[in-house]
Write a structure and sequence with these properties.
Blueprint: H1 7-15, E1 21-25, H2 32-45, E2 54-58, H3 62-70, H4 72-77, E3 86-91, H5 99-109, E4 113-119, H6 122-129, E5 137-141, H7 147-154, H8 156-175, H9 189-202, H10 206-210, H11 214-236, H12 242-254, H13 262-269, H14 273-285, E6 289-294, H15 299-304, E7 308-311, H16 314-321, H17 333-346, E8 350-355, E9 361-367, E10 371-376, H18 388-397, E11 401-406, E12 411-415, E13 418-424
Helix pairs in contact: 1-2, 7-8, 9-16, 11-16, 12-16, 13-14
Length: 428
């Protein structure tokens, strides 16, 4: 079987001998089961743990779920062969009733058991574990493949070069460091754009990336949506009006990157304010969308303004709107690239967007050591131009650094005290 290596696996390896429970959250079919099995292989084959001391269970198996629900102490005891350290890998833990209490019981009773658990709903895991496992659990997220993971599977050499320059961009945003842009011709930009086009069409779900034919990719994406609706939304979270929920997802997909006006959206999908607010929370906590709130000096003002919504996976969004055209051939190509940048930024920094009452707007403001504006312009530049909106932000806040994301242009200019760096989107 072909596996795509996940960055998170390395993070789990470095923490596998700590006492805390490791909890991996993420959307269904993002690769959590494969990650657990790869961790089990590493424990056996490289760390030298005896096979009997690595225990994998899935709570999608009704028999195992009932067994652990009725008596978690006995369930674990029967799987321990001696007093040495065991690794208990529990997949789909969100199905376990009173999850937090049962995990705490196992944690407290068996100091020779290291638990790694996965779950598909951040909303449910937080609700069930929050008050019982404070100080006892470390949480991680496994989302669809990042662009780096996607590139690592497609082209190892290109991914290494990407990682070097992406690291410099991240340092600009998180630490405010100066970015030495490329002065010579960048021969890799075209290759990165080719991969970005595929990534933006079909997204990063591992099974979709591994599929060879476009029709198979489309079929898999439809299947992911159906499974999400049936298992997470209906069976688990007990959302009964699936038509309304599906209409909401489609409406958000059609306007991805736009401000979410709850009253207007509620009217469009036949809902009401309180219900729609809850459904938006469900979509965010089950990793379908991410919301970006406005940047403002006043937190109170920021929270009052409408957020923007972006899809965590571009393939799901394209499946909902039934559009898999190339970036350069679709009217919403700019919005697609903006969504890509939003997802990339979210891996490294907290962010908002800037919009004035006069509707002057900057796509993102990254909260690192300082607030750094990020404007996405998926177009060809011949020189380092500056939009009126971005100029307005610079005059209002005087940041040390500013980032303009372009199609394929590297550049730099100085605007007052602000150094503006221009970077091709393929390096984000």
């Amino acid at each position: 079987m072909t596996f795509i290596e996940r960055t998170l696996l390395g993070d789990l390896k470095t923490r596998v001998d700590r006492r805390e429970i490791l909890a991996v959250k993420g959307p269904r079919q993002s690769g959590k089961t494969t990650l657990l099995k790869r961790l089990a292989e590493w424990l056996r084959d490289e760390k030298g743990v005896d096979e009997a001391h690595v225990v994998y269970v899935t709570l999608e198996d009704r028999e195992q779920l009932d067994d652990m629900s009725q008596n978690p102490k006995d369930f674990v005891s029967r799987r321990l062969v001696d007093g040495r350290r065991h690794y208990l890998l529990v997949d789909e833990a969100q199905y376990l009733p009173e999850l937090g209490q049962r995990l705490k019981l196992v944690y407290d009773l068996f100091d020779n058991v290291k638990m790694v658990v996965t779950g598909s709903s951040s909303l449910e895991l937080k609700r069930q574990t929050g008050r019982f496992l404070v100080g006892r659990m470390l949480e991680f997220e496994l989302l669809p493949l990042s662009f780096f993971e996607f590139l690592s599977y497609k082209d190892k050499g290109l991914s290494r070069m990407y990682a070097e320059w992406n690291g410099r961009v991240v340092s600009l945003l998180t630490e405010g460091t100066r970015l030495d842009v490329k002065e010579d011709e960048d021969v890799f930009t075209r290759d990165l754009l080719v991969h970005l086009d595929e990534y933006s069409k079909f997204g990063g779900y591992p099974a979709v990336v591994l599929a060879r034919e476009e029709e198979e990719k489309k079929k898999l994406l439809k299947g992911i949506i159906s499974t999400y609706m049936d298992r997470d939304i209906v069976s688990f979270l007990q959302v009964t009006d699936t038509i309304k929920f599906r209409n909401l997802m489609t409406a958000l997909a059609a306007t991805a990157g736009s401000m979410v006006k709850v009253d207007r959206l509620a009217n469009e999908v036949g809902s009401y304010f309180k219900e729609l607010t809850w459904l938006l929370d469900v979509l965010e906590q089950t990793y379908v969308i991410r919301r970006v709130r406005p940047f403002h000096r006043s937190l109170v003002t920021e929270l009052k303004k409408a957020p923007k919504a972006y899809f965590v996976d571009a393939g799901l969004r394209n499946s909902l709107v039934d559009n898999f055209a190339d970036l350069g051939k679709r009217a919403d190509g700019g919005a697609m690239v903006e969504g890509f940048v939003a997802n990339q930024l979210s891996s490294h920094v907290r962010m908002g967007y800037w919009r004035t009452t006069a509707k002057t707007e900057v796509d993102f403001v990254a909260y690192g050591r300082t607030a750094t504006p990020v404007e996405v312009k998926f177009q060809r530049f011949k020189k380092p131009e500056l939009s009126r909106s971005l100029g307005g932000f610079l005059r209002s806040y005087y940041p040390d650094r500013c980032l303009v994301v372009t199609r394929d242009f590297w550049g730099r200019r100085k605007v007052g005290k602000t150094e503006v760096a221009y970077v091709p989107v393929g390096y984000m």
